[in-house]
Amino acid sequence: MPKDAPPNGDAAPVDPAGPRRRVSEMQAKLHCWAAADPGRRFDDLFNFVHDPATLLMAFDRVAGNHGARTPGVDGMTVADVEDLVGVPGFLDDLRISLKDGSFRPLPVRERKIPKPGGSGKVRRLGIPTVTDRVVQAALKLVLEPIFEADFEPVSYGFRPNWRAQDAIAEIHYYSTRGYRWVLDADIEECFDSIDHTALMDRVRLRVKDKRILALVKAFLKAGILTELGDRRDTMTGTPQGGILSPLLANIALSVLDEQVMAPWKPGGTMTSESKRAYRRRKGLPAWRIVRYADDFLVLVHGTQDDAEAMREQVGQVISPLGLRLSPEKTRVRHLSEGVDFLGFRIQWRRKRGSGKWFVYTFIGDRPIRSLKTKVRALTHRQSQQGLGYVIMRLNQILRGWSNYFKHAVAKSRFDALQHFVWQRVIRMLQTRHRWSWHDIRRRYTTRTGRWLPITAADGTELFDMGNVTVSRYRWRGHTIPNRWTTPRTA
Fold first, then answer.
1. CA distance 131 to 137
2. What are the boundaries of the region Disordered (predicted)?
3. What is the Cα–Cα distance from 402 to 416, expressed in whole angstroms?
4. Contact 302, 286 (CB under 8 A)
């Protein structure tokens, strides 16, 4: 295969904004057509998939992911492709194989990782080859703007410009308006159990191009190479870890959003606040679903029996998809007990010092335990890592964690966690350098007794979570901007 060739003479390198602009304009057109005609089935999409600009953008996204250094069953990483083959030659060969129909996805390499929470259970991840990842990313670039036009505004997971904080804000918004009973649902092995026939039927509602359908089905049927080296066929499910898997899961589960939210559609019995108030006067419930990928809550304005009835309804909706609710993890709760969702704990409780009740959003216990575990691993007393590296890694973890939770009731938590991190680093330094407490005070306090930040030799300071501004996240409702409304030019 040819390697990367330098530009001829004084020719300038290819401007990456060109392919990006071309793909963005293509996506904007597809999204506009899909939104204008909800019943339209798209044909001749395959040319967009193997377009050189699409493949180049897809490769850039694959190379920019954290998993770029993880090989598939062929043992090749992104760096190997760049060094041994060359990106232009690699993409040219891939485009030819797509056009002549010789492309076949390889089985994904299975990797088992422990589930969070210390339950002892594992989650199966599928690691595709670099070639398959690029094709999946190209498919996603083409299919995502089409199906985004159909997704309900109650689905927040793995969608561009939609955030977990938006889902929490919506739960907070409706729970303060009387939606106090909650169906806390868990789908059992969702990604591994989705029925391929039902999923392909959902894809065919929008896609008529047989080559696209065959390519999606080929990825679903690619198979798995287990950690023991055994080949296993995939009769159901879309393995977690693939770039295309979250989009396919959203396409499958969109039937749940449509069924549960049908009364909220124009002409439905819950379209307006007045109609919902009329139902409440008649003793009838109102409900709303908030979903983030395969995690979702159903908020009910009614009684516990109404919430139990929603459990049966949801079970019937997802049954044709080959899915079922976990009997152990699915339960009906009142918001006064508190509900954990996406790391947050949402609870209706009395305000301290008053007789008024409000809905509060706290940080869940599990994320705090997880954060402390990471901090302990980095600040072990016998650690041989340099202080600069330890502070750099701690800052990365603490900044990301605090930015995610800074819209909760988190000020006291941040202060307590910052004190915990500070103590861990100080104890590590005491053990490493055999410092006494007097030595610590001499190095990290001013003459007036004020504590100085812990700083490495290169000047890197330990991030202070206590200084993070805590503010309420405003619910954006249905005004979340869409990236394809106007074509991007850069």
1. 10
2. 1-22
3. 13
4. yes
**CB 106, CB 72: distance < 8 Å:** yes
For 26-76, write each residue's pLDDT tens digit: 999 999 999 999 999 999 999 999 999 999 999 999 999 888 889 999 999
Angle between helical axes of 17-36 and 130-148 (0-180°, round to 10):
40
The three-point CA angle 175-181-182 to 5° equals 85
Query: Picking from 186-190, 225-229, 367-371, 426-430, which range would have the lowest pLDDT averaged per residue?
Result: 225-229
* Packing angle, helices 210-220 and 130-148, rounded to 10: 120
Other Cβ atoms less than 10 A from the Cβ of 2: the count is: 11
Question: Please, what's the b/e burial string for 383-398 (b: 16 or more CB within 10 A of its CB; e: otherwise)?
Answer: eeeebeebbbbbeebb
**Nearest alpha carbon to residue 225 among 74, 70, 68, 104:** 74
CA of 420: how far to CAs of 370, 375, 384, 413, 425, in Å?
13, 9, 20, 10, 9
Beta carbons within 10 angstroms of residue 22's beta carbon: 17
Distance CA(81)–CA(85), nearest Å, equals 5
